[in-house]
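ok so I'm stuck.
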Amino acid sequence: MKKQSLRTGASSRFAACLAAALALALTVSGVLAQQRAPARPSEPPRVEPPPPYEPQLLRLAELMGALAFLRDLCGAPDGDKWRARMSALLDAEATTQARKERLAGAYNKGFKGFEATYRTCTPNAELVISRYLEEGARIARDVGNRYGGG
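replied:
not stuck anymore, here's the structure
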């Protein structure tokens, strides 16, 4: 009788393991089927035309990238402020992923463009900083006055 109960116990454990394995296999196959299933047609991505001041914002983002790099390079304590300003610009203006990528790309272009050529602060780098601060202020003022932001 003990042999039967051992078999019955072993059979019960085997059945439980088999049931668990089958449940796991069904779950995995369901997940794999969902991954292979063609995507259901959904709404097309939202296409939003850029605002009329998009070129100015892209230039402003590029200037901020350049200033973030050059101000740090020249020992000014406000490089992080330029990164924070860019983040605020993205929060305010990046209404779509494509727009966010364009603005971030312009910032990175400005940053990397000077990073590739300047290793130390030079008189020319300080001149660029001065001109970019003036240009950035002018763009911000123009966009604000023209489109109601300021």
